[in-house]
Design brief:
The protein contains four helices and three strands, in the order αββααβα. The protein is α+β, with helices and mostly antiparallel strands. It has a three-stranded mixed sheet with strand order 1-2-3. A hairpin with a 5-residue loop joins strand 1 and strand 2. The longest helix is centred in the last third of the chain and has 21 residues.
């Protein structure tokens, strides 16, 4: 399978940003996972998707990450040696929540089927 430059840079950014976030000293940024990075075709904009166990504090988390955006971008530039480092936008990844809801629905349907309820 051939990977495009965009997907290679995207994966490298995801790995680097994950490490950078672990080093942040902001207490609002704990137990954060970088689930993906979507880059624009021209590599000028990176949407960084994050999730956390504590989704009730997601607004605080996104605010903290947005505040650290300059630092994160500078560190990414140092590590990846890109000609132009993409601007970073942090976004909440709700795919984990959706997966849990879908799993619960499937389990509920399976339980109903076992009991003979249709």
């Amino acid at each position: 399978m051939e990977f495009s430059r965009t997907s290679r840079v995207s994966e490298a950014m995801r790995e680097e940003i994950s490490e950078i976030i672990m080093r942040l000293k902001d207490p609002r940024v704990e137990l954060v996972s970088v689930t993906g990075v979507d880059l624009s075709r021209d590599l000028k904009l990176a949407s960084v998707y994050v999730s956390s166990i504590d989704d009730k504090r997601k607004d605080d988390l996104l605010e903290a990450l947005s505040g650290a955006k300059g630092f994160v971008k500078k560190e990414v530039a140092k590590k990846l040696h890109l000609k132009h480092t993409p601007d970073i936008i942090f976004k909440w990844d709700d795919s984990v929540d959706r997966a849990f809801r879908i799993s619960k629905i499937i389990n509920d349907l399976a339980c109903e089927e076992e009991r003979g309820v249709e």
